[in-house]
Amino acid sequence: MKVLKSTLAIVCAAAVLGVSGFAQAGATLDAVQKKGFVQCGVSDGLPGFSVPDAGGKILGIDADVCRAVAAAVFGDATKVKFSQLNAKERFTALQSGEVDILSRNTTMTSSRDAGMGLKFPGFITYYDGVGFLVNNKLGVKSAKELDGATICIQAGTTTELNVSDYFRANNLKYTPITFDTSDESAKSLESGRCDVLTSDKSQLFAQRSKLASPKDYSVLPETISKEPLGPVVRNGDDEWLAIVRWVGYAMLNAEEAGITSKNVEAEAKSTKNPDVARLLGADGEYGKDLKLKKDWVVQIVKQVGNYGEVFEKNLGKSTPLEIDRGLNALWNNGGIQYAPPVR
C-alpha cells in the first residue's frame, strides 16, 4: 500500500509540474506581441555580424536573424530593438529577460545548452572555429610557430579554454592577455601589446577589416576548434524556441529552393512545386503550429532575404570581410548547412 501511495504521489507531482510547464509555454511570444517588438541581444560591435552604421542602424547576419524573427511574428522586420552586449553580459541579459533572443556570435556547447537555463534552437547561423591573427612582419606561417607568444583573448568566451588546450597539446607556451571587448583585443594587437589575436575566425576577419592597414595582418591556416554559432533563447518556452528555430530553417529552405527576396511573392502565387507551396503558405497551414500567419516565410524572405542573400550581404565576397561560404554553403553545394522541411 505504501508503494502505491508513493507511486501515486510521484504521478501527481509530475502532473502538477506538467501543467505548470504548459502554463508558462508561450510567455515570450505573448510578451513580445504585447510590447510590439522583439528585443534582440547582439554583439558590442562586430562587422558582418552586428555593428552600427553611420546612422546607428545595426547591420550584420546576427541582426538579420532577429529581423527575420520580427518579420515572422509581426509581418514587419523593423519591429525589433537591439541591445549591444559584450561577452560577459550576454547570458545574464537573456536569463534576466532583458532580451528576448540572443543573436550574438555565440558558440553552442553542452554546458551552455543544458546548464545555464538557456536553449540553443539548433539553427546554426555560422559554422566557425578558433584561429589566430598575426602581423605579417612576424613571419609566422603556422600556429605551431607561436611558442612563447603573447596572445590577446576576449574574456568570457570559449576561446580561452580552446587556446589553452591547443598550446598544452602541442607543448607550446604562451602568455594570455584578456580584454572585455573584441575592439580592445584588436587595438592591443595593432599597438604591439600582444603578438597574436585569437578568436573565432569570422571575428578575426571582422576585426582585421577595422584595422588601419588590414593587409598587414593574416589569419593563420589552423582552425583549432568547432564553434557552431547561433541564436539562444531561455529554457522552458518551447513555443518561442520553435519559432526561432524554424525562422532559421525557413531561410535555409528558401535558399535551397531558389526563393529570393526578388521572386518570393511571385512564387507564392504561381509555384507548382509542392515543397515550395508548403514553405510559402500556398498549401497547408504550417504557420498555425507556430502561431504564425500563413505567409510567415514570405515575409521573412521578402523583407530580410534567404540565408544565402543574408550571408553574401553581410559576410561575402562583396564585403570588406570577403569570407567564403565554406562550411556555411548548403549541404548540396559542398557545405553542411541543412534544414528539415516545412511540412
What does this molecule look like?
The protein has 343 residues and is of the alpha/beta class. It has two domains: 27-127 and 229-333, D-Maltodextrin-Binding Protein, domain 2 (3-Layer(aba) Sandwich); 130-225, Periplasmic binding protein-like II (D-Maltodextrin-Binding Protein, domain 2). The chain contains 13 helices and 14 strands. The protein has helices at residues 2-24, 27-35, 61-74, 90-95, 110-115, 159-169, 182-191, 201-210, 238-256, 264-270, 274-279, 296-303, 307-314, and strands at residues 38-42, 51-52, 58-59, 80-84, 101-102, 118-119, 126-128, 130-135, 149-154, 174-179, 196-200, 217-219, 227-229, 233-234. The strands form five sheets. The chain has a five-stranded mixed β-sheet with strand order 10-9-11-8-12. A hairpin with a 5-residue loop joins strand 2 (51-52) and strand 3. Helix 3 (61-74) crosses helix 9 and helix 3 runs antiparallel to helix 12. The longest helix is centred in the first third of the chain and has 23 residues, at 2-24. The radius of gyration is 22 Å and the shape is globular.
Pattern of helices and strands: HHEEEHEHEHEEEEHEHEHEEEHHHHH
Counted up, domains total 2
Superfamily (CATH H level) name of the largest domain:
Periplasmic binding protein-like II
Q: If classified by CATH, what would the architecture of the largest domain be?
A: 3-Layer(aba) Sandwich
Q: Tell me the number of helical segments per DSSP (H or I, 4 or more residues long).
A: 13
Rg (CA only): 22 Å
Beta content: 15-25%
At CATH level 3, the topology of the largest domain is D-Maltodextrin-Binding Protein, domain 2
- The order of strands across the largest sheet is 10-9-11-8-12
CATH class of the largest domain, please?
Answer: Alpha Beta
How would a crystallographer describe the biggest sheet? Answer: 5 strands, mixed
Roughly what is the average pLDDT, rounded to an integer?
A: 91
Cα(first) to Cα(last) distance is: 49 Å
Overall form: globular
Helix content: 25-40%
Poorly predicted runs are: 1-23
Helix/strand-derived category reads alpha/beta
